[in-house]
User: Fold this.
Amino acid sequence: MDDIWEPEPDAADMFLSVHRKDYAVTALFHAVGPARAALLPGWCGNALLTAEEVRRTLPDVERALTFTREERARVGDQDRLDYGCRDEPVTDGPLRIRRSAAAAGGGICAVALHID
Assistant:
């Protein structure tokens, strides 16, 4: 996996979440529910967005991934496996990355990986 990303980008520019389920995007969609999942750009966790697309879709992503305290407690991350300091919840990382990309005027390459 590390060979794919060499040279390694700044950790602040990446989102990594490891799950027991076959696909991390399954965990994300389960966490946010179908109505919120429909607001997320891309297809099943995969997306290649220009800077303009990141800016244009950010309000929908914020609606999908902003939770009240009660919603966050209900959503949880029960299937998440902790693999280190770069691993973060599916309810936090995707929004952080999109906000960061929009602020920097950058695009996004999102890839859902299944490693056997």
Summary: The first helix runs from residue 24 to 32. The first strand starts at residue 18 and ends at 19. The helical segments are 24-32, 34-37, 51-65, 69-75, 93-104. Confidence is low (pLDDT under 50) at residues 78-85.
